[in-house]
Specification:
This protein has 17 helices and 6 strands. By secondary structure, the chain is α/β, with parallel strands linked by helices. It folds into 3 domains: 66 residues, 434 Repressor (Amino-terminal Domain), CATH 1.10.260; 187 residues, no CATH class; 37 residues. A hairpin with a 5-residue loop joins β4 and β5. The N and C termini lie far apart (46 Å). The relative contact order is 0.10. The model has no long low-confidence stretch (mean pLDDT 90).
């Protein structure tokens, strides 16, 4: 039966049942497609072919049993997204993860085991203790207190699958992908069309949700934000740069700190207040300046912003190129996995773009 596959592929395409009906030129009704998704019926070969074309997947894909699910899905959002967007993101995540794992299987690679710290989840009874958790994880992972060059790469090396999707009302997502006869694999989805420093903060924020266990007295979102700041900007590193107490700070100095730590000037300012480096008057004065500069409103265009490419997850793409070189998978299959035409894939192989 094709129900789960069809539903995932439709959700990943961002189509409603009615949209898909229109896209297959009304061969069958939206109600009939709904029945296929509930495994209450099976499409004819003609309808199956039309559905596959409309969803940009193969008929074989739709006919193969779905062997994975997303578990424990948690969205990070500023406002409530529509159910359709949530379904789209979950469908896209499953779609990409399946392709990711297909490449690993083709190369005979086990998925990198999630290097969860032995003491996780860490209980949090007050916000100040979150800094110690961030430092503990840095120590366990051998990071010291230096700025992290690439958070996406770091997390993927530790066994967390990172996916980048075009999102609207959703900033990020954490979940576990569960395969039949396999361990759960953690996944974080970040907003593709966002600057690098905001992606880095989202990634660190989502890591917090994976390793912290907040008590009822602690707001989990505030704890995750505090963890993200502490993980990206350890106290000792900030103190070494700017001292422990400041009564004034120029925007120019904040921008230089931004370039060093890969964090927005607003995140740096919040972190300085948390550590007592900035008192409330300086904090408010700086945020008034940010407001006047337009940095607090979408698209949050601060100076010296890191390009979105800087924190793009690239492990899956590298594995695809390796699989091609080792002839472990066909060119057409790699093109399908990367969502490219065979011609575009050939051009990418011969003339790769330079990521600044």
């Amino acid at each position: 039966m094709i129900g789960q596959r069809l539903k995932v592929a439709r959700s990943a395409s961002g189509l409603s049942l009615r949209d898909l009906e229109d896209k297959i030129d009304n061969l069958v009704t939206a109600q009939a497609i709904g029945k296929y998704e509930r495994d209450e019926g099976m499409p004819s070969s003609r309808v199956l072919s039309a559905l596959a074309r409309a969803l940009s997947v193969s008929e074989a894909y739709l006919l193969t049993a779905q062997d994975m699910t997303l578990d424990g899905v948690e969205f990070r959002r500023k406002k409530m997204p529509s159910k359709r967007e949530e379904s789209f993101v979950e469908g896209q995540a499953l779609h990409l993860l399946e392709r990711y794992l297909t490449i690993e299987d083709a190369l005979g690679l086990p998925s990198v085991d999630w290097a969860q710290p032995d003491d996780a989840p860490y209980p949090v009874s007050e916000l100040a203790t979150v800094d110690n958790v961030a430092l503990s994880i840095r120590r366990i992972w051998g990071l010291g207190i230096d700025p992290i060059p690439n958070v996406s790469e770091l997390f993927e090396e530790r066994g967390i699958k990172i996916l980048s999707l075009r999102l609207d009302d959703i900033d990020g997502l954490t979940a576990s992908v569960v395969r039949k006869d396999g361990d759960a694999i953690p996944v974080i989805v970040v907003k593709e069309n966002e600057c690098g420093e905001r992606k880095r903060f989202t990634l660190a924020h989502e890591l917090a949700h994976m390793v912290l266990e907040s008590s009822q007295d602690v707001d989990a979102e505030k704890a995750a934000n505090r963890f993200a700041g502490a993980f990206l900007m350890p106290a000792e590193a900030l103190w070494a740069e700017i001292g422990k107490h400041r009564t004034a700070m120029s925007l120019g100095e904040l921008v230089e700190l931004k370039k060093k730590f890969g964090a927005s000037v607003q995140a740096i300012t919040y972190r300085c207040r948390e550590l007592g480096i900035f008192k409330e008057p300086l904090f408010k004065d700086l945020f008034n300046k940010f407001e006047k500069m337009g940095w607090r409103s979408p698209p949050y265009e601060e100076p010296e912003s890191m390009s979105a490419d800087k924190e793009m997850p690239r492990r899956m793409e590298r594995l695809c190129f390796r699989a091609l070189a080792e002839k472990a998978i066909s060119e057409s299959k790699v093109a399908e996995i990367l969502g490219l035409s065979v011609r575009s894939l050939a051009e990418k192989m011969d003339q790769p773009s330079l990521h600044s």
